[in-house]
Amino acid sequence: MDKILQWSIALQSGDQETLKKLGAPDPKMLQQLFGGPDEPTLMKQAITVVVNPDSELEAKEIAFDNFEMLIENMDNANNIENIKLWSPIIDQLDASKPESLRVYAASIIGTAVQNNPNSQEAFIKYPGLQALIDIASDPATSSELLLKALFAIASFVRNYEAGYLKFDELDGWKIINLSRDSNHKVKLRILSLISSILSTGIDAKKEEHISKAHMTEFLASVLAKDGHAGCIDKVLNIISQLAELKYQFSASEIATFSQGLSNVEHMEELSTDDLHAAKKVIN
C-alpha cells in the first residue's frame, strides 16, 4: 500500500526518477484497491481503441503502450491468443499504418514471445513472421522500426525449432546480409538474431545457410574494424556458440578470426570467458 501511495504521488508530480525507481505497481493490487475491469478486458479495450478508425493517433499510441505494459506479464502475453488479439496486432505491421503503431506492434510481438514457448506456439499460426521479415528486409524501413522488427524475430526464433524452420522457409536468412553497413544498434540486433538461430542447434542445412549468408565473414569484419565493445563481445559469444555446436571452422575462417582477435584482445571491457573460448577456436 505504501509503495502504491508513493507511486501515485510521484505520478501526479511528474517525478520520473521516483517512478523509475519504484517501478509500475501490481495491476492486480490496483484493481483490488480501486476496482475496474480485469486485465484481459483491459487488453481487449486497448486493442479496440487501436483498431477503431475514429480514434485519434495519440489515443491509439496510449492504448498500445498500456497494452504492452500488461503483456509484460507472461499470463497476459498468453492471453493474446486466448482472447484472439494476435490478428489485429499483426495487422498494425502493415505499411499502410502509421509508423508509430507499426513500431508498437513489433515491440509487443517481441515482448510477448520472448522466453515464452506458449506465445511462440500461438504466434506461429499467424502471418506475423512474414510481415516482420518484410519490414526487416525493406531498405526504406526506419531505424526504430527495424530494431523492433529484429527484436521480435530474434525473440520468436530463440530456443524454438519450429520458429527457426518457419524463419528458414520464409527466407529470413537474407536479413543477415543487410548488416554490412549498419549502425551499431542494428548490428547488435543482427548478432542477437544470429545467436537465436544458433540456439536451436546446427545441422548440414544450417551450415550451408551460414556459408551462403557469409555469416562468419560478417563476424570477422566486426572483430577487424568495428571497434564497438558491445558488438565485439556479442561476436565472441557467437564464436563460442559455434564451437560448442561443433561447427567445422575452415582454415580461412580460423585465420581471419585469429587476425580479428589480435585486434581486440586488449579491450578490457570484453567478456573474459568468451574471449578465452574464442581463442580456443583458433589454437
TrEMBL record:
Q: Which InterPro entries match?
A: ARM-like, ARM-type_fold, Hsp70_NEF-Inhibitors, Nucleotide_exch_fac_Fes1
Q: Per its record, what are the GO molecular function terms?
A: adenyl-nucleotide exchange factor activity
**What Gene3D superfamilies has UniProt attached to this entry?**
Leucine-rich Repeat Variant
Q: Which terms are listed as keywords in the entry?
A: Repeat
SUPFAM superfamilies attached to this UniProt entry? ARM repeat
Output the Pfam families linked to this UniProt entry: Fes1
The processes (GO biological process) annotated in the record are: cytoplasm protein quality control by the ubiquitin-proteasome system
Q: Which residues form the Nucleotide exchange factor Fes1 domain?
A: 1-80
The similarity comment for this entry is: Belongs to the FES1 family.
**What protein am I looking at?**
Hsp70 nucleotide exchange factor FES1
User: Per the UniProt entry, what species is this protein from, by scientific name?
Assistant: Suhomyces tanzawaensis NRRL Y-17324
